[in-house]
Backbone:
């Protein structure tokens, strides 16, 4: 909406439309009149004044304003003459600017409709991954250096089958950190153990028995998960503002993409060079 | 396809294709630049820059100089402090060199999202950081801040000025180098660009930077700092400083157009401190300072006096030790007995083209020693700084670590574009005029590095206060963690205790601090050393304590290996520790965990201690050799591994130092 409003108020836009109409009319008539008319409105003058004020901090004097308006007229005439000569084609800046304006125009025309409560709820559920509070896990682990023989690890694994959580702690080697963790999220685990199979196992392993051996950036571990809190989706009520903003942003993206697809289908493009 | 009615036909020929490629580098995907904000933001300056010149103002400042506003008492249990990793030095499209020379179009919004680990769009390609950062300071150059971004808008006054047109033309001609040279004629001399007033845009851009930093600040999860870079260059010598603010608001930047003398920057910091704005300045690229960064004299040629020393130490508690344009720890010429001194050295000035700089006065270890000597003379140490690491990349995307840097958009032109096959070749294969000895080869650049901060929580206050007390360390991009404590009374068994950390805080001082005065004659300082590997990087080779001290007015240095992996021996003759070995496979760019340790810990007592000699100690921890980014990039692209730069390197971490100052200075 904002872009449309800004656009409507931009003189450049008026000129493009006005110029376009004039150009079309003259082309229709098939001849160019000897004189052209255009008007400098009060709005134009105010705008010229305020640009000056923005740059220099004060309003222009009467004389300065006269000069600024003269400059503006000169620019307008040059622009019209340039347009008549087709100087706007093949100019990268003009091309880009008009394309940008068109994209703003299109975006502002495609304002998404605010969702019904049911739609928002559906959207919330469908995108739950974005809003869910991360799950947390509590566990004990024992550690063995990375060069520990596989045979030794197999032995430990067998011993752990019958072992309780407490009894097993003594089996491991010194780990430079905690052996017990309470209520940690996967993100925190990644910070501590690196991006390794360890994190996935800690978040997935069955509760109440030893799993392993599993590798981390430090070496080998066996894990005993004592508790796990699954990730929870907060009430929509508590998240409403954020979800609504995301919904509208997503809708806008879809509308834009669709609009472009429709336009794109109007064109057949030939790319004549290898990429 | 045939059923679609064809309303229009567009031809994209070879010319258009190459144009599109060129333009691709220049167009931003988003348009959040300051141009859009300048109209919305009123011209106002809430905090005019104070340039104290009168005697009364000077006196007022001297009184207010006392101490920065810090509430370190609010920190609860020191042993609960965690290591947070981040980058305190990054440029976006708002920096003149990034925009003009490197064609960067990434804005601060994107920079923050990328740092937080979000996937961002980079010229149509989704890119994502290897691991998210905990904090980031966007430090765009204050000089002509956001000014040249107006060239995006053909209607802007700049785009229509003679100077702006000339610059735009050179950018369009792919000649950013000469465009920057033209700008440099004014900017490096502290003069205004001819034509439109840059300060108007600068003010609104600054407000935008403040707003954006606040927008992405997520206490507990991700910290942003309001920051900028003061970019003073004296005859090609780099004296740049990053200014980092503690709060949620900040006055207008003091730029090198205001003054190229760092003493004036400190005046500014002191002046704004009296208005409630706490900030510090971090010098960087001492390696490119041509001997000026740790000079014996101030910029106006006077010997450093107590007032200068005190101001410098208060306003510049940290220095950047390593970044994209080289490492400033030390140089092989200054530390011939340090076998690991030759690490990512870039000893050129940041001139176009680069020329060799003076080594003496340009490296931090030597600076620490000079600080002791000056302190002995004037009673105050000007060069009493902790260490931070940063990227200083100019792509808006902070990439730290070899892997990130090798495959990321941050490589070419100090970070201008995602490398395609051609650019990869240009980076890796020597070309005439840009061999590594000229300083112009992309191969001499390093990956971004990191600052590790021991803080209670991930908030501006907590992290900033840790920066202030120098409880920070730097790494070459890896996330190994270091702890370093000094004391007169640690016992030999300290590191075997399960509560060693609590004891270390209780009976000792942490990195960045002073040892209390020694009143027990018989004792030497004892240091507690602990290092933990980065689980996603190589194992640890060794921990070293580097001691810098003065004897009879001369500065000395010595490197002690204090802990290492495995059962290695020292050479009987050289006392050097046997090398750890190298498991890197240059064909695959991989390494193994067969060598090295995951953790190193020890206590170490200085065997050569003399209580009359001022000394400073810091910890350096080396990882086992791993592939350098240039090797990884070559492997990823099936190209030969470059042989004019090292194929593997030992990533490392540096703790902030601990100082010892004798109570009675007798060593003259």
Residues:
């Amino acid at each position: 909406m904002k872009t449309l409003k800004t656009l409507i108020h931009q003189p450049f836009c008026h000129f493009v439309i006005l110029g376009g109409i004039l150009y079309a009319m003259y082309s229709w008539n098939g001849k160019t009149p000897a004189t052209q008319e255009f008007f400098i409105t009060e709005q134009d003058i105010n705008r010229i004044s305020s640009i000056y004020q923005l740059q220099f901090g004060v309003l222009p004097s009467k004389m300065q304003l006269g000069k600024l308006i003269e400059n503006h007229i000169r620019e307008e005439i040059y622009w019209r003459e340039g347009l008549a000569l087709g100087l706007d084609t093949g100019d990268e800046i003009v091309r880009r600017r008009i394309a940008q304006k068109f994209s703003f125009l299109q975006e502002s025309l495609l304002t998404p409709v605010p969702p019904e409560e049911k739609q928002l709820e559906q959207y919330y559920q469908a995108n739950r991954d974005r809003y869910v509070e991360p799950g947390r896990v509590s566990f004990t682990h024992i550690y063995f250096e990375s060069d520990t023989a596989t045979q030794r690890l197999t032995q430990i694994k067998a011993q752990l089958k019958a072992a309780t959580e407490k009894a097993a702690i003594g089996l491991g080697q010194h780990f430079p950190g905690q052996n017990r963790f309470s209520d940690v999220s996967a993100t925190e685990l990644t910070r501590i153990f690196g991006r390794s199979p360890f994190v996935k196992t800690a978040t997935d392993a069955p509760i109440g028995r030893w799993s392993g051996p599993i590798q981390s950036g430090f070496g080998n571990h066996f894990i005993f998960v004592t508790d796990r809190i699954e990730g929870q989706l907060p009430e929509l009520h508590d998240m409403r503002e954020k979800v609504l903003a995301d919904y509208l942003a997503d809708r806008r993206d879809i509308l834009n993409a669709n609009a472009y697809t429709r336009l794109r289908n109007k064109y057949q493009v030939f790319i004549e060079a290898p990429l | 396809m045939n059923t679609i009615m064809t309303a229009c036909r567009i031809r994209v020929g070879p010319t258009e294709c190459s144009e599109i490629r060129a333009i691709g580098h220049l167009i931003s995907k988003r348009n959040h630049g300051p141009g859009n904000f300048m109209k919305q933001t009123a011209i106002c300056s809430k905090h005019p820059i104070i340039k104290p010149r009168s005697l009364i103002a000077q006196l007022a400042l001297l009184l207010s100089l006392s101490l920065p506003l810090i509430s370190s008492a609010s920190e609860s249990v020191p042993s609960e402090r965690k290591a947070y990793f981040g980058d305190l030095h990054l440029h976006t499209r708002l920096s003149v060199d990034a925009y003009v020379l490197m064609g960067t179009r990434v804005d601060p919004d994107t920079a923050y999202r990328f740092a937080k680990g979000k996937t961002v769009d980079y010229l149509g390609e989704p890119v994502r950081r290897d691991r998210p950062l905990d904090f980031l300071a966007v430090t765009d150059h204050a000089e002509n801040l956001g000014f040249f971004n107006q060239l995006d808008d053909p209607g802007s006054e700049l785009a229509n000025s003679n100077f702006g047109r000339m610059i735009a033309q050179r950018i369009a001609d792919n000649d950013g180098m000469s465009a920057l040279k033209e700008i440099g004629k004014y900017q490096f001399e502290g003069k205004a660009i001819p034509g439109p007033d840059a300060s108007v845009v600068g003010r609104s851009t600054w407000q935008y930077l403040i707003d954006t930093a606040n927008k992405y600040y997520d206490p507990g999860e991700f910290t942003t700092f309001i920051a900028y870079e003061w970019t003073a260059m004296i005859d090609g010598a780099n004296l740049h400083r990053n200014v980092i603010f503690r709060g949620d608001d900040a006055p207008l930047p003091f730029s090198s157009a205001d003054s190229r003398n760092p003493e004036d920057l400190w005046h500014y910091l002191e002046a704004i401190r009296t208005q409630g704005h706490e900030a510090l300045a971090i010098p960087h690229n001492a390696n490119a300072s041509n001997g000026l960064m740790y000079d014996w004299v101030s910029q106006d040629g006077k010997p450093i006096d107590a007032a200068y020393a005190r101001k410098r130490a208060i306003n510049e508690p940290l220095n950047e030790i390593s970044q994209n344009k080289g490492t400033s720890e030390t140089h092989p010429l200054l530390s011939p007995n340090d076998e690991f001194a030759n690490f990512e050295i870039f000893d050129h000035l940041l001139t176009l083209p680069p020329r060799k700089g003076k080594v003496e006065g340009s490296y931090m270890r030597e600076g620490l020693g000079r600080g002791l000597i000056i302190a002995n003379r004037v009673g105050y140490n000007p060069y009493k700084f902790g260490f931070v690491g940063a990227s200083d990349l100019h792509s808006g995307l902070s990439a730290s670590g070899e892997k990130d840097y090798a495959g990321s958009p941050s490589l070419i032109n100090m970070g201008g574009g995602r490398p395609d096959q051609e650019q990869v070749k240009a980076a890796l294969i020597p070309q005439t005029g840009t061999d590594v000895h000229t300083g112009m080869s992309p191969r001499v650049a390093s990956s971004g590095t990191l600052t590790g901060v021991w803080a209670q929580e991930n908030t501006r206050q907590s992290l900033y206060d840790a920066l202030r007390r120098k409880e920070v360390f730097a790494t070459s991009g890896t996330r190994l963690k270091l702890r370093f404590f000094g004391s007169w009374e640690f016992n030999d068994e300290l590191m075997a205790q399960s509560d060693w950390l609590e004891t270390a805080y209780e009976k000792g001082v942490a990195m960045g601090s002073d040892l209390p005065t020694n009143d027990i004659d018989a004792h030497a300082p004892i240091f507690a050393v602990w290092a933990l590997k980065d689980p996603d990087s190589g194992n640890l080779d060794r921990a070293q304590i580097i001691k810098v001290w003065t004897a009879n007015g001369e500065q000395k240095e010595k490197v002690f290996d204090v802990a290492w992996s495995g059962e290695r021996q020292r050479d009987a003759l050289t006392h050097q520790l046997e090398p750890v070995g190298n498991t890197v496979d240059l064909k695959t760019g991989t390494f193994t965990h067969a060598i090295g340790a995951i953790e190193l810990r020890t206590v170490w007592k200085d065997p050569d201690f003399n209580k009359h000699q001022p000394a400073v100690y810091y910890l350096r921890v080396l990882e086992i050799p791993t592939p350098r980014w240039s090797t990884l990039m070559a492997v990823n692209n099936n190209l030969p591994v470059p042989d004019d730069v090292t194929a593997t390197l030992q990533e490392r971490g540096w703790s902030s130092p601990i100082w010892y100052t004798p109570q009675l200075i007798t060593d003259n």
